[in-house]
Amino acid sequence: MNIVIRTDSSVHIGSGHVMRDIVLAKELARLGHDISFACRPQNGDSIDYIKQQGFTIHELARPAQWLTPSSSADYSAWLQVSINSDIEQFCAVIRSTDLVIVDHYALGSEWQEAIKKHYDCKIVAIDDLVREHSADIIIDQTLLRKSEEYLSRNNQCINLTGSEYALLDPKFTAKREHALENNECPRTVKVLISMGGIDKNNITLEVLEALLLLGKEKPQVTVLLSKKSPSYEEVSRFCTQHSDWTNHIDFSDNMANVLLQHEIAIGAPGTTAWERACLGVPSIIIPLADNQRTIATNLVKTDSAILVEPKKIKTHLTTAYKALVSDWLKFHSNSLKLCDGLGVKRVGRHINNLLHGKISKVSLRAASKEDIEQVYCWQCLPETRKYALTSEKPTWNEHKAWMQKKLESAQDYFYIIQAVNTQKSVGVIRLDRIKNAEYLVSIFISPEYFGQGIAKNALLFIDDIHQHVTLCATVMEDNVASQQLFIAANYKRTAKDSFIRLPII
After folding, report:
1. What is the edge-to-edge ordering of all strands in the sheet holding 498-501?
2. What is the pLDDT of residues 118-127, one digit of tens each?
3. Are residues 10 and 158 in the same domain?
4. 348 lies in a domain?
């Protein structure tokens, strides 16, 4: 199917929107769709980079007069033209499309309705402003965001909210397995400073000057700053003068590798916050725009980052750095819990189903403390215990302690299976980490839903999301139904009671 992504980047906008859109574009291309971008050329844009990634660009008209945003929330100036002009220009360069993905703070429900009417297409909106949309799917990767916070003029709209839908490059998922093995901070701390590709306010230099005040306690620092930044020369000069503890790089096409080489990051709480969290890299976060405030607050609330206001870098940054180093393991562990890096797989599955008119029998959601009692009821059923590896029924206190520990683990996955037609919780599927990139699968279904294909669909759902790891299952020999289930779900028998599914990609 034909998909067009409408987004922009510039000195004022930054490049974060484009970077996450490219990640999604690659996943959708892998699923067999034709992807192109519609962008307006602006100072500091990423059009050449998008082309380098292999995507076609439909360039919208340059404005006759460039607008300068009056604040970080002046989104109309980001667009550079009126909404009606943008609609007209988009429709002039795009002949037809099956789906439009819009990732732009200046383009809301009015724009979406006009585009949907013109092309009779589906709309996916990527946003974090909690505003009304006219979309089929809304994606908001903000930590702790609830789906009910969003409204859509389409009453069939699917809201994908929270950091489990963060659009990260699959390279982060692969490197996460290494990050899970890391449990100590070395004596020589390595810090990555990345304030975005543009950093028009030169926050990077302020951070470097603050770290200089640490004297002999200075860390080894890598600075990531693009040549498109107005501060590039000044920062580069500082790094040259202090080459004994700083290193400046312009760009990396493998941020996962770069991050994994550092123990601490200093940056803005945008998309990169989820990259850092996925690899367990604790952060000092410096919000640069109003729309980053919610993310910043929630990162602090979860004890995965320390906040430093831009105006207080000189006075507060060194204190924040020392606090992060002294309690590194806590921040590292809490960061890992926030984001597993599989968001693009989850989003891709939803978009693919939307385009092909598929309605899944089941969906999976992360289990929470509110599910502890329900799971205990299922665990105590005779049908569950009959073929459990441990036949003895746990006590309530044993179960509660066990499940709370599982929910707090950054290494394991605990999903509640839901029936899509009723949205009722119908069972559990868990992935318990055995070793690097290998997990043990456990699944059970409420007896009233036996024989409806729920378990098989849940295993196939897992295949779509957890493609990069090996999955193992242990099934008692006399549990014929479950043995047949795993065979039907493309697992290979390795022993009388053992099954395996090797990585798919």
Report:
1. 362-366, 413-419, 424-435, 438-445, 470-474, 498-501, 492-495
2. 999 999 999 9
3. yes
4. no
